[in-house]
Amino acid sequence: METPIFLIGYMGSGKTTLGKKLARKMDMPFIDLDEYIVQEIGMTIPQYFQINGEDKFRALERQYLHQLAGKQAIISTGGGTPCFYDNMAWINRHGLSIYLAHSPKGLWSRLIKTDRESRPILAGKSPEELLDFITEKLAERSPYYSQAQLSINQLNSKIDDIVNEIMSHITVASR
Ligand SMILES: Nc1ncnc2c1ncn2[C@@H]1O[C@H](COP(=O)(O)OP(=O)(O)O)[C@@H](O)[C@H]1O
Ligand SMILES: O=C(O)C1=C[C@@H](OP(=O)(O)O)[C@@H](O)[C@H](O)C1
Ligand SMILES: [Mg+2]
After folding, report:
1. Would the pLDDT of 166 be above 60?
2. What is the first-listed, main subcellular location in coarse terms (predicted)?
3. What ipTM describes this predicted complex?
4. For the domain bounded by 5-173, which CATH number is listed?
């Protein structure tokens, strides 16, 4: 692929996990937008949210997204990246966008097992609050995610199966 491949989707949809595996299998560089921002600003995402708030984070996220133009890499975005500014249109102009779709319950069952403090938007919620929050926010964000050029419905697939499915689509798209 001559352009970046952007993985998009809600928190817990597997962008970081699948992105790393996909990049390894496709022998392409891997960039995680969140990790890139953390390296550049020298603090964690929760620290940045606490000091500067979400609006400033979104401006920063857009700025670093734009630095990825022209990179021939697998790029895992943050869950909110496509949903602010004109980021989704920008992503579609600059690369192939792939939406990792999953149900609210499926996302919840993954996120409940992770360290939620590392995702400031989810921090401090009870399990019940978390499911309601994911359901509501996913509905709000879906109009952005659904603009992706390719959607992968995950159902209960294993990580390796999803990676193979994405690869089969990418091969077709690049022909
Ligand atoms: N297909 C999958 N099946 C089971 N667990 C998964 C799958 N994809 C991701 N996970 C797990 O879900 C959690 C969130 O994954 P992550 O890649 O960080 O998501 P994102 O970057 O989209 O927020 C991690 O604990 C990861 O191991
Ligand atoms: O959905 C969001 O608004 C966010 C998702 C996070 O990335 P992941 O989707 O990789 O967790 C990270 O960018 C930040 O905590 C905000
Ligand atoms: Mg991630």
Report:
1. yes
2. cytoplasm
3. 0.99
4. 3.40.50.300
